[in-house]
Amino acid sequence: MTAAIRPEAEQDREAIWNVNQAAFEGDYEANLVDALRGGGFVEMSLVAEVVGEIVGHILFSRVTIVTNVGTVDALSLAPMAVLPSHQRQGIGSRLVEEGLEACRERGHRFVVVLGHPEFYPRFEFSSKLAERLQSPFGGGEAWMALELVPGALEGIEGRVEYSPPFMSLE
Ligand SMILES: CC(C)(COP(=O)(O)OP(=O)(O)OC[C@H]1O[C@@H](n2cnc3c(N)ncnc32)[C@H](O)[C@@H]1OP(=O)(O)O)[C@@H](O)C(=O)NCCC(=O)NCCS
């Protein structure tokens, strides 16, 4: 069954919370989504729907790169989740691909992610590209960046500042 990918609607909120809770086996990411939405930090939130059921979710929120010469706007991909019963069927990949395309169409230039090093490089996220960007969470190989516009990160070096919900949720 093909999943339909579309922007979240108001009536999806409970289902989105449940998808994140189930995929991460805990409340942290589900509550983070609510806090990002409540704080007005969400740039893009897409859901994957299969016969009327929300089975996947991806969120892009605004972050800032603080450099020596000023600040640069960027996006963070986090969190994303697919219900355990629907994983490894390509739904997560479609959420990433369609999400990135929608961000590109809105004129965004780069995205950072702290996530599975075996998953995100297939969409051209690169830990090498993120070497000159400092993450407040560390991350090593899991800290990756992607240019939505080729070369957009050239010459940019600094620390990535996340919105308050990322820094304050327990
Ligand atoms: C990561 C996740 C969103 C991928 O969604 P998906 O629909 O299964 O992804 P796809 O079917 O498009 O791609 C499969 C790839 O996802 C990754 N993946 C799938 N299930 C995974 C799991 N339980 N844990 C970690 N990675 C997983 C693997 O890299 C897999 O590649 P492979 O099949 O070649 O081994 C989904 O597994 C999930 O919700 N995991 C739990 C929450 C999570 O870790 N979110 C991401 C935080 S960075």
Fold and architecture overview:
One of its GO terms (molecular function) is acyltransferase activity, transferring groups other than amino-acyl groups. InterPro entries: Acyl_CoA_acyltransferase (IPR016181), GNAT_dom (IPR000182), MshD_Acetyltransferase (IPR050276). Residues 3-149 form the N-acetyltransferase domain. This is N-acetyltransferase domain-containing protein. With 170 residues, this protein is of the alpha+beta class. 25% of the residues lie in helices and 34% in strands. The protein has helices spanning 13-24, 28-38, 91-105, 164-168; strands spanning 4-7, 42-50, 53-67, 70-82, 110-114, 133-134, 143-147, 158-161. A hairpin with a 2-residue loop joins strand 2 (42-50) and strand 3. The longest helix is centred in the middle third of the chain and has 15 residues, at 91-105. The chain starts with a strand and ends with a helix. The mean pLDDT is 96. Bound molecules: coenzyme A. The site of coenzyme A has 17 residues, from helix 1, strand 4 and helix 3. Residues 23-24, 79-82, 87-93, 115-116, 118-119 line the site of coenzyme A.
